[in-house]
Description:
Layout: E1 14-19, E2 28-33, E3 36-43, E4 46-51, E5 66-74, E6 77-88, E7 95-97, E8 113-121, E9 127-133
Antiparallel strand pairs: 1-9, 2-3, 3-4, 4-8, 5-6, 6-7, 8-9
Amino acid sequence: MSEQPTTSRPADRKYAVAKAADIAPGTRKIVHAGDRSIGVYNIAGKFYAIRNVCPHQGAPLCRGLTTALVVSDEPGGFRHEREGEIVRCPWHQWEFDIKTGQMIVDPKMRTKTYEVTVETFDVTVVDEMVVVHM
Length: 134
């Protein structure tokens, strides 16, 4: 009986990119992890990370406006939902959901998202760091 080859996933790479306190709720910080530029967002105390590249034409996506989702139930009426969860590309105004990376008008189009954790390092000085997993 021959042994089946096993496939394994590459090891999870972690990058400590910022102190949690440096990214206040409702703000973002653009960081570098490896060779990638990434926007790390604090939405209501939870951290999300997306690639700082618009899939349309390569604009620095995270330099765009962070806003709410505008929804409408009828002509002339609109309301804002999910405040601070949408980033708008600074070049062509394409909007992306920060939590999922999906484009608002075409969910099949997306930008890369990354897992984010906040970890405490138990050393001489305890310091909470935002860690991006790639």
